[in-house]
User: What shape does this take?
Amino acid sequence: MPALNPYLASMPAGYLFREVAKRIDDYQRNHPEDKVISLGIGDVTRPLSAAVTRAMASAALEMGTKEGFRGYGPEGGYPFLIKAIYKNLYEPRGVTLSSDEIFVSDGAKSDTAALQQLLSSEARIAVTDPVYPVYIDSNAMTGRAGEYRNGLWSQVEYLPCTAENGFVRAEARVEDGRVVVTVTDNGIGIPDEDLLHVFDRFYRVDKMRSREVGGTGLGLSIVKDTVENRGGTITAGHGPEGVGTVFTVTLPLAERGEEA
Assistant: This one.
């Protein structure tokens, strides 16, 4: 008879997202006058924009035709999608890339979990605290996390995200009909002369980084274009008391059902 995985029995019965949802419900029940912005669960809370729903409906209808039907896609993404990504994101910004430099995946979670399978059960892992549950659970199910005691795994090295070790804090508020999001860290910060150019295309604060090891210098430029195309603004400055960096994004509030 096949043996069952003994490590599954050691998994805690609770589930993070269910606990977060319960606490939100309890708070709203006791404070009905408060408006809660829920950032604790990776779920959508507003309707999809019309552009997204039209594209999804069109793609579904294509699957009912001989010409448009598609099964498993190529490993790096469909050529037509790669071409569209290049044409709309990189070409307008003067970036020249070959098709094999662009790939489409389902994100880092599955790849990160797969990489863990290369390690032995004796390998010790370190995770930030707090951390997305899957990064702990995938190790616990293979026996790599050790024993679960008092809310912690015995073989996991926890790296607390605190103000003392350079954490990143994100906050959101509504102000004068706009959503204001600030992201603050308390690291080494960005020099004044670089703050003026961080949103410029191809600009790198660290001049020693090459494209091969340090990216194209387009990340913040793309963010700025994306925010401004939606009627918003983004700025960068020094953190509280001159420590670290703070990015501030403002976006207009959208009415329910309005296309973003």
About this structure: The first strand starts at residue 125 and ends at 129. Helices lie at 16-30, 50-62, 79-90, 108-116, 133-140, 192-195, 211-214, 219-229. Residues 61 and 68 are 8 Å apart (CA to CA). DSSP finds eight helices and eight strands in the chain.
